Amino acid sequence: MEILLVERAILELMISNNKKGYSVEEIAKELSYPELVVENTLSELMVLRLVNYRASKAPYELNRLELQKVAPLLRSKQEKEKNIKELINSMFSSMEEETSFNRVILDDFEEAKIAQMIKELNDFIQHVKKNKKKSAHSKEKVIFVGMNNYHDLVLKDVVGS
Amino acid sequence: MHPLQQFILQEYWNLKGNPSLKYVAQETGIQLTRIHRLMNSHEMRISEFSIFKDLVEKKSHLPTLTINVASKSSLAELAQELEDFLDEEEKIDFASLLEREIKKQRIKKTKSNSVLLKSA
To answer: What is the pLDDT of residues B15-31, one digit of tens each?
Structure first.
């Protein structure tokens, strides 16, 4: 079973609000996604039996029984890795000004300095995460920071880890 | 001009010793004007590429595989070839990747099909 980020977002919304049923319009408004995307995603979730449809004003309901069965998969390391790769892919396919990707030769001092800055940034992000309540999905940000050896990455791309 | 097109035309021209366009048209069954266009960087069709490839393979000592690999054009062929290289775990990963892509295309492109599901 494959769960896309957009499916995960809808499931998370339905779980967190603990309401009985949702309409397409309601989900689209909450997540700020086009209604067609929401409706098609709900169809995918219905195929997976994670969402049921009952003719009413708020017809889409979470199938909690089925969700329990797939919860370990949703929380698995492999699934999270897939999601991260997709996020990074999206990030670089729409390079914003704030997104930078650099290939550079560093001396020991420069490398240590950048490593320290990355650590400080990560510590700050963890601090913010700890003290922040979950807000609207559309307000969330993705921050991608890291440094690696170019040579190792090139090799890994071919031979794997 | 696509490097493969350039490669196959160059191989053909070398093997035939700079043939006339008329000769090429006769041998390949491709119209003279079309040959002229292909020489002037118009994109070659797969069927045209196959004709040149077959003629070059018949005459040259080039390893067939080199040309075959280069001329792979359909997704199914590429997937089939990839399958021969992958181990079981890699196959599962790749299938998962394809499945996700297909799902994304369905979500992005399909006009809502939930009507069918709702009535099921």
So the answer is: 888 888 888 988 899 98
Structural domains in chain B (count): 2
Q: Determine which of A10, A35, A36, A86 to mutate to test the interface with B (most B C-beta atoms within 10 Å).
A: A36
Which tens digit of pLDDT belongs to each residue from A121-149? 999 999 988 887 766 777 888 888 899 99
Q: Please report, as a single letter, which amino acid is at residue A55.
A: A
Q: Decide if B104 and A55 are in contact by the 8 Å CB cutoff.
A: no
Q: For residue A17, what are the domain limits?
A: 5-71
- Please report whether residue A92 resides in a domain: no
**Residue A1 to chain B, least CA–CA distance (Å):** 8
Q: Are B42 and B9 in contact (CB under 8 A)?
A: no
Domain with B101, as residue range(s), is: 75-112
Chain A residue with minimum CA distance to B108: A37
Q: For residues A82 and B104, what is the distance between their CA atoms, to the nearest angstrom?
A: 14
**B44 in a domain, yes or no?**
yes
Token pair listed for B81 = 């070839």
The candidate with the shortest Cα–Cα distance to A79, out of A11, A157, A158, is: A11
Beta-carbon count within 10 A of A114 CB: 14
Q: Concatenated DSSP letters for B82-106?
A: HHHH--HHHHHHHHHHHHHHHHHHH
* Residue B118, domain member (yes or no): no
3-class SS string, A134-154:
CCCHHHCCCCCCCCCCHHHHH
Provide ipTM, 2 decimals: 0.79
